[in-house]
Amino acid sequence: MKPKIKIGICGYGNLGRGVEAEINQNPDMELVAVFTRREPAASLKIKANVPVVHVGKAAEWADKIDVMILCGGSASDLPAQGPAFAKLFNTVDSYDTHAKIPEYLAKIDEAAKAGGHIAVISGGWDPGLFSLMRLYTGAILPSGETHTFWGKGVSQGHSDAVRRVEGVANAIQYTIPSEAVMAQIRSGESVDLPASRKHKRVCYVVAAQGADTVKIEQTIKEMPDYFAGYDTTVHFITAEEMARDHSSMGHGGHVLHMGKTGVNGNSQVIEFALKLESNPEFTSSVLIALARAAYRLAEKGERGGRTIFDIPPILLSPRDAAEEIKNLL
Description:
By secondary structure, the chain is of the alpha/beta class. 34% of the residues lie in helices and 26% in strands. It has a 7-stranded parallel beta sheet, with helices on both faces. Strands 8-9-10-11 form a 4-stranded mixed beta sheet. The protein has a 3-stranded antiparallel beta sheet with strand order 7-12-13, with helices on both faces. The two termini are 26 Å apart.
């Protein structure tokens, strides 16, 4: 019997709790420890009967963990934690600031090679599965155009970015796609619009007592890489309204690719869609599969930064290649 893959979790918010739950559905893995910045670390109450360790002591666990899953936010956690942990562990994260992924990957690659590890970045469904679908569809129908629509749903990364704005006590952000534009593409019509014209962003914010709501709204709407250029609406609500009306973590979206084939220019449309009741739990499931792949790549002696583009699909599966070929191919 093969030994179980030993998993560490860094960060215990919605994503970290999701990873903990999904490990229980993967019998080839076991949770070894949860790492937190809380003081004292023992104050963090988790479901699993495993040690809770302050993040400052992570280096002491370098030989006890096969893959560390980093569950912090992309705005400020992962830019610092990603390279630091890649020197100590094989890692997987869900860094989702699309415009900065090449820069982040370069730093991760340098750190992972220096530490002798594999570090898989930007796992999840977008970036992640949707990225892969954009690659596949564009390769299959190169004479065409790809469009990605997100929502309607809660964006964890954007919500986290809003919560970090000075004066914000709590916040949630919804991305809402244009149904009219999606219908145009499904009909085979070419659409030349940026993502900011195909979506709206709606934020619900609980302001801290005495906070400047005008400044908060301005800061959100002008935030680069997240809200700048989008039709963004900010609603200020009470903590009670937040708890009552905005506890769902659903999300989803579509990758639509319209292309032409043959001498007659026949229209071909490819669509990949997700409808998720829990965004963090689904993202956690993707991270778990990538952790398995990272472990296998490391076992083969590979080192450095990777994205989902670099992962052979068979390495994601808990089953062996012969079984998957027989049942799925």
